[in-house]
Amino acid sequence: MNGSESAGSAIWVSSVGLDAEQLRAAVDSAVAQVPHEDVVVVGRHGEAETVGRASGVMVVDDDGASLSALLASSSAKAIIVLRWGTLAPGAVTEIEAFLRNNVGVDVIYGDSVTSNGAPLFRPLFSPIRLRSNDYLGPVVAIRIHVLKAIGGIDRHAARSHVLEVALRAHDAGSVISLLPVVIAREDLAFNDFSDTVEAQRAAVGRYLAAKGVDARIEEVAPFVRRIRYDVVGAPLVSIVIPTRGGSAVIAGGDRVLVVEAVRGIIERSTYRHLQFVIVADLDTPVAVIEELEVMCGDALRLIAWTDEFNFSAKMNRGVLAADGEYVVLLNDDVELVSPDWIETMVGLAQQDGVGIVGAMLYFEDSTLQHAGQVYVGAVAGHAAFGWPGGQNDSIMSLSVDHEVSGVTAACALMRRDLFLELGGFTLALPGNYNDVDLNMKVRTAGYSAVFSPWVRLYHFESKSRDPKILDSDLLTLQARWAGLMQVEMYSRML
Amino acid sequence: MVEAEHELALIDRVIGLEMQVEELRRLDRLDPASSLAQRESVAALKETFTWRAGRVITLPIRAARFARRVILR
């Protein structure tokens, strides 16, 4: 394709981190699907020259100038970048068909399998996740005119070109899409990737700085970063808790749920600009109210609930009474684990496009209760439900902030004005699925639901609790959202 | 407060009705990736033994329905 006519795709095979055998396999998988002249080995690492010569393909440096020259001379319609893996048979056909059938899509990435054949199913495009982990996989394709339109290759982004281009393309309004088909075999044996880890961290740092986002980047694991976003300003955060002042036996001791939940927040939260909005049933014991008044002082807003049970209506009343710019929707049967939970959630909520932020919730026995909601067949469940603490999936979903289909309202933060703009919780779902409906309203309004594994709470809900889902609840939910809740597209590995 | 709660409920009803209309119109509301995944999911379902067995078992019923439609036409 270099200078000559090409109707299809050029394949750029990155040699970073590959030994000669791996690189040869990658190049072979490419030349099996496009003409030799459309394949280029990028980077003269290791035995790249030897492999390139033996395979009859060009080898270029991976510096910005060389790649820009390669891009300028290309007559292909799209560039397929192949890194740390091989193309699956038929991958180029799948990629070109997807681009042809979806003219609005500019960049695509796809599913892969490990060398053992284990699937690596990737989520729908997730810009918040991308900052923490380049999850795009071994194969990323971009239309050449789009790459040129967004400014081509960044000369500062050696070893992190794909991540850098994806971040830049997203900000430029390009449409980045998952191709939910296995298009690669991934080689997870990391060789000589230490420079890549640092290059990716630097690329994210430059990206955030250019956007004016103040944040600290911490390495969690190779290629996995925690982004600690600084809270802009010091917004008041209202914590809205519905309660009837009930007690339960937790860890062998009797516990007044709402009192202990609030006490834990007051004692352990590092964020101080808080308001507590307690929506209490009339039969809430007076002693409970008095204890809350003593603990919260002026930060307490007490709302009486006089009607019959309706979780949605109670929460709506609480949010309406709240003064905060942000509201935390919180159950009373929780206990805070992460002192910086508010900073983490507000920091995420202040990022472009984020509508609602949820938390990692644990059962009393420290197994996972919630790591985001999953929607399949127009029914909702929880990702990673019952997993032991510390378990993760193969794309490190429980170590990165990431977009999800929805988050439980047992602990969720959103802007108060957005909550009101969307009509709050629907009264049509008084007990169950009201949070699913809220998440769907958030997402169809163009915002994302984001789960953070760094916001951790215990949720003392019984693992065997029967949520008593009524047929009418399900019908109400499905009447609105069935078409959008058939296949889970975010937590595909959980 | 009561007025504000009614206003909130009204906004929700409008959004809910809009979404119900979208559902009833059976428009493809999905992004390209979700749409493809859904088609693949249905295709995979149709490959299962359960689906095929069900098609065989219900064949007489489906044939009768088809015949009735042809006759009534």
Shape of chain B: elongated
Low-confidence stretches of chain B: none
Provide the CATH topology of the largest domain in chain A. Spore Coat Polysaccharide Biosynthesis Protein SpsA, Chain A
Query: Outline of chain A, from the CA principal axes?
Result: elongated
User: How far is the first residue's CA from the last residue's CA of chain A?
Assistant: 41 Å
> Count of helices of chain B?
4
Provide structural commentary.
The complex is a heterodimer of chains A (494) and B (73). With 494 residues, chain A is an alpha/beta fold. Chain A has two domains: 9-228, Spore Coat Polysaccharide Biosynthesis Protein SpsA, Chain A; 237-484, Spore Coat Polysaccharide Biosynthesis Protein SpsA, Chain A (Alpha-Beta Complex). Helices cover 31% and strands 28% of the residues of chain A. In chain A, α1 (20-31) packs parallel to α2 and α7 (161-171) runs parallel beside α8. The longest helix of chain A has 18 residues, at 194-211. Chain B is elongated, with a radius of gyration of 21 Å. Chain B has 73 residues and is an all-alpha fold. Chain B folds into two domains: 1-30; 31-73, no CATH class. At the A-B interface, β9, α11, α14 and α15 of A face α1 and α2 of B. Chain A: Pfam families: Glyco_tranf_2_3. Chain A: Keywords: Transferase. Chain A: GO terms for molecular function: transferase activity.
Helix and strand layout, with pairings?
The complex is a heterodimer of chains A (494) and B (73).
Chain A: E1 9-14, H1 20-31, E2 39-42, H2 48-55, E3 58-60, H3 64-73, E4 78-82, E5 85-87, H4 91-101, E6 107-114, E7 119-120, H5 127-132, E8 139-143, H6 144-149, H7 161-171, E9 176-186, H8 194-211, E10 215-221, E11 224-229, E12 237-243, E13 247-250, E14 253-256, H9 257-268, E15 274-281, H10 286-296, E16 300-305, H11 311-321, E17 326-330, E18 334-336, H12 341-349, E19 354-362, E20 368-370, E21 373-376, E22 379-382, E23 402-404, E24 411-415, H13 416-421, H14 434-444, E25 448-459, H15 471-481
Parallel strand pairs in A: 1-2, 1-4, 2-3, 6-9, 12-15, 12-17, 15-16, 19-25
Antiparallel strand pairs in A: 4-8, 5-9, 6-7, 6-8, 10-11, 13-14, 17-24, 18-25, 19-20, 19-24, 21-22, 23-25
Chain B: H1 2-24, H2 32-46, H3 49-57, H4 59-72
